Amino acid sequence: MVGLTPGDHTVKVVKTGGQYLQLDAIEVTTPRTNNSHPAIAYTTSQWTTSGNRAAGDVQDDVKYATANGAALDYTFTGTGIDLIGPAEGTTSVSIYIDNVLVSSVNCTDAGYIQQVALASVTNLPPGQHVLKVVKTGGQYLQIDALQVRAPRINNEGGGLVYSSYQWSTSGNRNAGDFQNDVTYTTATGAYVQFTFTGTGADVIGPVQDVTTADIFIDGALVATIDRNDPEYTAQVALASVRGLAPGTHVLKVVKTGGTYLQIDAVQVRLG
Length: 271
What we know:
Layout: E1 32-34, E2 41-42, E3 48-51, E4 61-65, E5 71-77, E6 80-97, E7 100-121, E8 128-138, E9 141-143, E10 145-149, E11 152-154, E12 160-162, E13 168-171, E14 181-185, E15 191-198, E16 200-217, E17 220-241, E18 247-258, E19 261-263, E20 265-269
Antiparallel strand pairs: 1-10, 2-5, 3-4, 4-9, 5-8, 6-7, 6-8, 6-10, 11-20, 12-15, 13-14, 14-19, 15-18, 16-17, 16-18, 16-20
């Protein structure tokens, strides 16, 4: 599903037939940056816009080039990015991240297929990166949109700052945790702090027994965690913060009571 307005939505999947319905995961995507966005820098006259195509493109237009060497640059904050465009004919491109060649893509498609991920870059370290796309062959390179991948930072990932000796890490639990570990504390007043760039964040952790905590953004109390769960459930959004102004923010989680506060990950929201 694409083209939803930014915000909270509810997805419902109903099995209507067949033998099995097998669910592995649900991937939430961030808003797409259309090809016409001023943050995308194209190489001058080598690109042309084609609009009102009624072909199923994002915002009903694409930017295209026929000249080899035509390029675009885009600076983004995240852990990956998808190059979205229609697949049609033969296209060859080189993908650079931070001036390093990371992928060379060759696409050959007999018919027009809209909103295809022509190239995907994943597993980048969280932070700011520069994408560069260069046409190297084929008839057309058509750019529809760019989609940044929002980072999920593991409890042991870079950027999470814990209050000294009050925390311990438990790994190889095989309990369904993200990257198979959590960082936990029993001490009231223990905290974890994380600086991120985005419009929101989710504090991810398992629920079990009684847990209470305060959530601060940029020094202001914005939410509380108050859980009492009899059974262990992994990767729960213990708290979610939305609607922040785009930019850099500081998240702080402070344990206020209960038995354990267990941190599995922080999911950054970009839109």
